[in-house]
Design brief:
Radius of gyration of chain B: 18 Å
Distance between the termini of chain B: 37 Å
CATH topology of chain B: Ferritin
Shape of chain B: elongated
Structural class of chain A: mainly alpha
Number of strands of chain B: 0
Oligomer: heterodimer
CATH architecture of chain B: Up-down Bundle
Organism (chain B): Desulfoscipio gibsoniae DSM 7213
CATH class of chain B: Mainly Alpha
Number of domains of chain B: 1
Largest interface: A-B, 29 and 28 residues
Mean pLDDT of chain A: 95
Organism (chain A): Desulfoscipio gibsoniae DSM 7213
Number of helices of chain A: 2
Shape of chain A: elongated
Protein name (chain A): Protein CotJB domain-containing protein
Structural class of chain B: mainly alpha
Radius of gyration of chain A: 15 Å
Mean pLDDT of chain B: 97
Keywords (chain B): Calcium, Manganese, Metal-binding
Number of domains of chain A: 1
Largest sheet of chain B: none
Helix content of chain A: 55-70%
Order of helices and strands of chain A: HH
Family (chain B): Belongs to the manganese catalase family.
Order of helices and strands of chain B: HHHHHHHH
Strand content of chain A: under 5%
CATH superfamily of chain B: Ferritin, core subunit, four-helix bundle
Chain lengths: 87, 190
């Protein structure tokens, strides 16, 4: 499996995810900020798309039913664990 | 309820194994200003906060601190992984190795195990939010100390990211405190 590609796809998810986290915290204390709300919704859509694309190749990113499983094998335990990846 | 994301918040790289550096950085895993203390401090305080905003901020920052604990754990793991036993002994990690091998453990840089006394909760929302503001500043200061002790550029990148997050959290806790103080004052006037 192409390791560089996985790291690259993960990086894109990490970038979108930190933007979402930052906007989430900002909106907690600025719940009426329209510009931040719009940005949050945009990044939410981009993040979901990036995660679903990653999962098609490398298996589930989330446990407990938030990521789909494929037909023939439970892949949650297949991909490397976050602390094992050589970034 | 929490859901696990099979990714780190940011990529974590180290240039080479360095058990000496691992011994310093482990304090942000299990030391007084570390990420275990931070996550538990915030998540534990949620229940007695008077406003929805304060409960939300504590939930969200407490959750991010759990992700930071995983980042620090990964740094320590990668700095010890593959280090020969002689290097572990030379780094003064022999006593850690005697009890824990290459496993992680919540301890400060001197090897003293984590204690719940690192975390405070008074039940007074104004006092507790001040505690968090101080905690964020102390964690920032420890990350700066660690940056002085490091010359690995890849480790520095990770430590700088974590330091910046403390600054953002401090900002959000400050705003939360302002709203909570307003809320408490209104209650008293009424």
């Amino acid at each position: 499996m192409d390791h560089r590609n996985q790291v690259q796809m993960l990086l894109q998810i990490q970038q979108l995810s930190i933007v979402a986290t930052e906007l989430n915290l900002f909106l907690d204390t600025h719940p009426n900020d329209q510009q931040a709300l719009n940005m949050f919704n945009q990044v939410h859509n981009d993040l979901l798309k990036a995660v679903r694309n990653y999962e098609k190749i490398y298996g589930p990113m989330l446990n407990y039913g938030y990521s789909p499983a494929v037909q023939n094998r439970w892949k949650w335990i297949d991909s490397p664990w976050p602390w094992e990846i050589k970034y | 309820m929490w859901v696990y994301e099979k990714k780190l918040q940011i990529p974590v790289r180290v240039s080479a194994p360095n058990p000496k550096l691992a011994k310093y950085i482990i304090t942000q895993y299990g030391g007084p200003e570390g990420e275990l203390s931070a996550s538990l401090r915030y998540l534990n305080m949620r229940y007695t906060m008077p406003t929805a905003m304060a409960k939300g901020v504590l939930t969200d920052i407490g959750t991010e601190e759990l992700a930071h604990m995983e980042i620090v754990a990964t740094l320590v793991y990668k700095l010890i992984e593959g280090a020969p036993i002689e290097a572990i002994k030379a780094a003064d990690l022999g006593s850690h190795y005697a009890d824990h091998g290459r496993a992680l453990y919540w301890e400060n840089a001197a090897g003293v195990p984590w204690v719940a006394a690192y975390v405070s909760a008074t039940g007074d929302p104004v006092a507790d939010l001040h505690e968090n503001l101080a905690a964020e500043q102390k964690a920032r200061a420890v990350y700066e100390n660690l940056l002085h002790l490091t010359d690995d550029p890849q480790v520095k990148d990770v430590l700088r990211f974590l330091r910046e997050r403390e600054v953002v959290h401090f900002q959000r806790f400050g705003e939360t405190l302002m709203y909570v103080e307003d809320y408490m004052n209104k209650k008293k006037v009424f």
